[in-house]
TrEMBL record:
Residues 1-22 form the signal peptide. This is Type IV pilus assembly protein PilP. Keywords: Signal. The keyword Signal applies. Transmembrane segments: none annotated. It comes from the Bacteria. InterPro entries: PilP. It holds the Pfam family PilP.
Amino acid sequence: MIFSRLALVFGLSLLVGCGASSDFTDLRAYMNEVRARPKGTIEPLPKFQPYESFTYRAASLRSPFQPPVKIDVVSRQKGSQEIKPDEARVKQFLEGFNIETFEMVGTLRNDSELFALVSGAGGVHRVKVGDYLGRNHGKILVIDESKVDVMEIVPDGEGGWLERPRSLSLKERS
């Protein structure tokens, strides 16, 4: 009972404190002064130039970071019409990558055949003699314990084809 009377007295005192008898004349004067000030203006958005797309057309040219290659036209090797890649052959997975991305990391042997392990193209792949490697129709000719010999067929630039030997040497791990 005493608690409820105490709560009632406290609640009434709060209501009396919230009445309109308080003096807010200084606050009202400040608000009237702010309302009397001239209204500001907002600057318009800046005009942006439309985007002009750029197409890079020098991708097929020589890299500016590599020295120019001097070609001796007289001593340049001529291609042959007899040498050409088999275009009807189904391409193997490893032919979708440049041969420079591969490195030999080991060998495997079973009863009849020696396989090479090459790293590149997202993993380590097992290859054998007769498989193809690289974008230039590179056929694996020889596999031994320390290297893989590949023969690529590349265009000579005049309608013929050249055979270019390449080797992947075993990478020594330290």
